[in-house]
Specification:
It comes from Dyella flagellata. The chain is α+β, with helices and mostly antiparallel strands. It contains five helices and six strands, in the order ααββααββαββ.
């Protein structure tokens, strides 16, 4: 699917639409994505800061989606584990920038080439517009070549 179409569809996905999460940019080659979580009355917590579940949700699918797009239908790409470290209160809109580093996809393909499962951790800081880190989300992905391609 073309990146602009995918971005529009993801922005209409109810969990993102109703929690203030927007995919601002998705590069045409699916190597970078920028996401914003707007602070709204319905997504702030009791102390009027960003709700932790929304912070995690804004980062949840993107490593998997970017990598799955590149590895294609020959591989399983699943989320295996995740964690979030809350660094400072989110009192404003926050942003996350996902970027696939050069060589990563070749590394994953090579590691999974014989059908072994590959577990790899990815990390993204969630920051304010001024660059203050609000949280750090870590996701572990499971990558494996599908049986019919081994």
């Amino acid at each position: 699917m073309r990146a602009p179409t995918f971005r529009r569809l993801l922005n209409l996905w109810p969990p993102f639409l109703f929690s203030g999460i927007r995919l601002l940019n998705l590069d045409d080659d699916y190597t970078e994505a920028r996401v914003v979580l707007r602070l709204r009355p319905w997504n702030r917590n009791y102390v009027r800061t960003q709700f932790g579940g929304s912070l995690f949700a804004m980062a949840d699918p993107f490593w998997m989606l970017l990598i799955l797009h590149h590895l294609g239908k020959d591989h399983f790409v699943w989320d295996k584990a995740g964690s979030i470290d809350f660094v400072s209160p989110g009192r404003e809109d926050v942003y996350a920038h996902f970027k696939l580093e050069s060589g990563l996809l070749e590394e994953l393909r090579a590691a999974a080439a014989q059908g072994e499962k590959v577990l790899r951790w990815f990390e993204v800081p969630i920051k304010t517009a001024a660059g203050e880190v609000v949280a750090v989300v870590r996701k572990q992905l499971y990558v494996r070549l599908k049986p019919k391609h081994r």
